[in-house]
Amino acid sequence: MLTAPAALLIVNGKSAGDEELRMAVERHREAGYPLHVRVTWEHGDAQRYVEEAARLRVETVIAGGGDGTINEIAGALVLLPAEHRPCLGILPLGTANDFALSCAIPQGLDKALALAINGKPADIDIAQVNHDRYFINMATGGFGTRITSETPAKLKSALGGASYFIHGLLRMDTLKADSCEIKGPGFNWAGEALVIGIGNGRQAGGGQALCPDALINDGLLQLRVYASEALLPILLNSLTSDEQNPHVISASLPWLEIEAPHEVTFNLDGEPLKGKKFLITVLPAALTCRLPPLCPLLG
Ligand SMILES: Nc1ncnc2c1ncn2[C@@H]1O[C@H](COP(=O)(O)OP(=O)(O)OP(=O)(O)O)[C@@H](O)[C@H]1O
Ligand SMILES: [Mg+2]
């Protein structure tokens, strides 16, 4: 009998009680796949488990959670020496699961686990922020930030991805554009931004396609600045129908620097980071990830 490659699954504690997950893990173990399972309690746990995975020499570390869980695991994987770096696999168990959905990862846990263990690895980029933070999917500032970082946890688990949207609507009266300056190679913009999306992937905030042309393996980040409050109705209806809108600034850049006169919050895959200056750089082909053959984010 062939020895199946081992994987370590890191489950966000919020989803540890999932019965479908337990059954999917059992089935794969019975089929002969060695699968270690670890559960997180708080920020920092995932990184320790990734280090353990490297010591165990597993071939794959599977992120069982939402975008924030994938973020923490991807950020820990890039710190490992390339020769001992396991592949990333994705098991969507979060609220919005924007990255998994836009990658066309199957929503059924059994199929998703099979792909996470056996899928073909593809090289993908990851973005580094201020030298020590990362995002794999998207960084958002402005309106989107308020939506994600202030969506109460209980509302989030009750309503799923839709909660971002509903909560955003409730808070519309409090929205304000933020003034900032953005520089990159051959790119310079200053003005009032309502929403800034910097995409390695395409969608955030529960299905909002802020960066509709982004690819995760092109060595570039798609910057989209939604620069006017007049855009609010568009933002709330369809973010993709505004290609010709002069208030939408778009660029594809290998790095960019954003500076604001006062402190702003960026969400990195839904996890907040405060500051006045953000240097964001793409790290091309920094990770390998097991993705569906027809993943729309692969160019
Ligand atoms: N046992 C736990 N209970 C509550 N929060 C946890 C636990 N373990 C980790 N966390 C925190 O959960 C956050 C990540 O959650 P994650 O993004 O995976 O789910 P989500 O926000 O529900 O999904 P999505 O981002 O796709 O909408 C991190 O901030 C992490 O520190
Ligand atoms: Mg999250």
TrEMBL record:
Its EC number is 2.7.1.-. It is found in: Cytoplasm. Binds 1 Mg(2+) ion per subunit. Ca(2+) may be able to substitute. One of its GO terms (biological process) is phospholipid biosynthetic process. GO terms for cellular component: cytoplasm; plasma membrane. ATP binds at residues 40, 66-72, 95. The active site is at residue 271. Keywords: ATP-binding, Cytoplasm, Kinase, Lipid biosynthesis, Lipid metabolism, Magnesium, Metal-binding, Nucleotide-binding, Phospholipid biosynthesis, Phospholipid metabolism, Transferase. Its cofactor is Mg(2+); Ca(2+). Mg(2+) binds at residues 215, 218, 220. PROSITE patterns: DAGK. It is an enzyme of class 2 (transferase). GO terms for molecular function: ATP binding; lipid kinase activity; magnesium ion binding. Probably phosphorylates lipids; the in vivo substrate is unknown. Belongs to the diacylglycerol/lipid kinase family. YegS lipid kinase subfamily. PANTHER family: LIPID KINASE YEGS (PTHR12358:SF106), SPHINGOSINE KINASE (PTHR12358). This is Probable lipid kinase YegS-like. The lineage of its organism: Bacteria, Pseudomonadati, Pseudomonadota, Gammaproteobacteria, Enterobacterales. The gene is yegS.
